[in-house]
């Protein structure tokens, strides 16, 4: 039969082209689901034909070895890189307040994407296949940790001075990563302080916090002082009773506390920048000359 009749030949039966296309789309959808989801038991009923979103399989977690997957290395590399990128932008004189609106826009976009994927399983499958290497399995069926990350930074960048906001980001980027890495490796050897928080992880957060404050306030702030406007930097040797060593030590304490406190079971990507901003600001303000 000619093309003008709007029909196609399939299995010796004449069917409308639209039905053929629907079957092809359905088949491709099923093939994609098979690739990304675990196999179903043959005894499953027809009601189980659609695999729950919670069973979406992250192929990226298979591509990497067990060690890389267990320790979330791609996620941690990305997490830590944000601190280095931010430090570089600081040395280039980027106004930290100019980053606020991009953060807000980023939050809105990510929130909309999460709403879509959590209500549209097929899109969630595609999403997880694309960025699954940066996701935890629990984030397949709940809001992405990036949302909390951005929300915490929005709080810090909105309400605090440049140095406090940057320190909160550095502690989130580096101290949290160190705490998670060391805590996962050696946490079972030390006392547990809170839900999924160990003394080993807190020591790691403290150590990285001390180093971060020492390097930032001891090198980067004075070296790039010409980039700072009046009021951008809360701590200086001239305006504080705290020496650099004492400030760095207290910065380590702030890092450990911010990472170790389990606040209402909220995501620590949000609580760490919020708490570290509040604590660090309080420490510096209390010891002002």
TrEMBL record:
InterPro entries: Dgk1-like
One Gene Ontology molecular-function label: ATP-dependent diacylglycerol kinase activity
GO process terms (BP): phosphatidic acid biosynthetic process
Gene Ontology CC, one term: endoplasmic reticulum membrane
Protein name per its UniProtKB record: DGK1-like protein
Protein source organism: Saccharomyces kudriavzevii (strain ATCC MYA-4449 / AS 2.2408 / CBS 8840 / NBRC 1802 / NCYC 2889)
